Amino acid sequence: MNVMGxxxxxxxxxxxxxxxxxxxxxxxxxxAADEAAEEVRLRLAVDGGDVEAMSMLGAMLLRRGDFxxxxxxxxxxxxxxxxxxxxxxxxxxxxxxxxxxxxxWWRIAAVAGSAAAAHALGRHFRERGDxxxxxxxxxQSAEQGHVLGAYALAxxxxxxxxxxxxxxWMRAAAERGHREAAYRLARTLDRGAGPDRDGxxxxxxxxxxxxxxRQAAARGHRRAALHLGTILEKRGELKEAGRWYLTSAKxxxxxxxxxxxxxxxxxxxxxxxxxxxxxAAQDGDGNAANALGALHAERGETQTAERWYRAxxxxxxxxxxxxxxxxxxxxxxxxxxxxxxRRAAYAGHREASNALAILLLRGGxxxxxxxxxxxxxxxxxxxxxxxxxxxxxxxxxxxxALRWYERAAAAGHxxxxxxxxxxxxxxxxxxxxERFLRCAAGGGSAEAAYRLAxxxxxxxxxxxxxxxxxxxxxxxxxxxWYERAAxQGHRRAQVRVGMxxxxxxxxxxxxxxxxxxxxxxxxxGAFNLGLLLAxxxxxxxxxxxxxxxxxxxxxxxxxRLALVCARRxxxxxxxxxxxxxxxxxxxxxxxxxxxxxxxxRQELSA
Length: 606
Known about the structure:
Blueprint: H1 2-13, H2 21-47, H3 51-64, H4 67-79, H5 83-95, H6 99-111, H7 115-128, H8 131-143, H9 147-160, H10 163-175, H11 179-192, H12 199-218, H13 222-234, H14 238-250, H15 254-266, H16 270-282, H17 286-298, H18 302-314, H19 318-330, H20 334-346, H21 350-362, H22 366-378, H23 382-394, H24 398-410, H25 414-426, H26 430-442, H27 446-459, H28 477-487, H29 491-503, H30 507-519, H31 523-535, H32 539-551, H33 555-568, H34 571-584, H35 587-605
Helix pairs in contact: 1-14, 2-3, 3-4, 3-5, 4-5, 5-6, 6-7, 7-8, 7-9, 8-9, 9-10, 10-11, 11-12, 12-13, 13-14, 14-15, 15-16, 16-17, 17-18, 17-19, 18-19, 19-20, 20-21, 21-22, 22-23, 23-24, 24-25, 25-26, 26-27, 27-28, 28-29, 29-30, 30-31, 31-32, 32-33, 33-34, 33-35, 34-35
């Protein structure tokens, strides 16, 4: 845990605490002196005929690489019945290339009860392909508590497909501190934690997975540190996740360096992120190379971005080709964009397939675009499914279009849900229409919010008469949806919100929404704003808005202008606006405008 404390300081400050060279030299000298003294003691004991000393001296010489000196001591100790010496003699002979003779000595030591020798003998038989013999001796070793024997036995059983036996011995090795066993046990549990588990069971498995990753990572397993960091990042514990990513990355795990880069970028430290992405990309991580490419593309350094996208592609990451296509498309290099999109699409990249289809469609090749849309949609691209809906709707194939819209809507595509909702409205299925419109409106579609509001508006009962002193009624759900659409800039919703406010007597609120709609180009908004201003006694300003509405084709506004001109005595101008109202309609407006026009004409000719 002290190491983790150092890592925490490192991640927080970026500073390393290095021991001095003098301290290291002192420690090494002390160790050498202690070993020399131990060797002298052992040799004196050997001269006195101490068998255990012979065995220990042989092991010391073996570790040092003095095979000749070690062999004589180990053979002498073995002849005297020391099983540890027999095991080490087997190790020595195996290192010298005498595998069969080594196995003979390991067998002697294993029969005498050496768990280490049984493990070595089991490994020997597995290398020879004799799995039954390997299993027997590894089982002997594992049952005596030998951690390496337990791990080797678990590995053998897993290779054979005995998952239950492998899991048992992998857990035993992990519980005894074997870091690779802890990692592999965590991976097995992690893969088995599928979506079919209930909440409590999944949580328990998740805790155990994290426990084993943490144990392996604490013992220096870099991939375990990576997976532990991923778990912590998903849980939102970013600081600790960063420490484990850093631990793994410093041990050479490129994926951890890449993940650390993304964590730093999200924290706003782009420069440090780039350093780790560079390190990961140089170690062959395609995701990091893509991240570097995107970073340089954002900075406008397109040549450098292209170089990194190519590096990602060379590392086997199909996103590299896709990103190259995007880069070329942004620069107007359509032919090159198509080339890179095709390369990624042929490799199965669904978004590249969709992008290629869009490129072909824009070029007028609808026949060539459709199969790529289909390929992307079948691979799970929601945008491609929506685009297929648009394609078939343009051909008049409404049923096929609706099927693709429904598929995209089921995956959460907002505009697709809107299209399905509108189709259901046209078919008279108001309940289903409401369901899809709610999905689209909840996803941020202003049009869906407006359409949903109109459905709810038509369904609600008329409001009760409002009496003086009675508190104002709370806003209905349909009003809330109108307001949501209006706040997103939907002009018809803004007009409707203004009308509802005016009905409540809130003139200021009504004028605000009418004005927003009018300034965005709504002729109904301009007309209603004019009415409101006229009622408040601001007819000159009202005329300005009516004129804007009439110029945009609003018949009632033209009729209002004709009436104003008639009252002012501007008969010719009034007749012109009356003619305009007749041509714009609707019918009842046209009839009134025609009568006014005839009266003005008679007045002018009198």
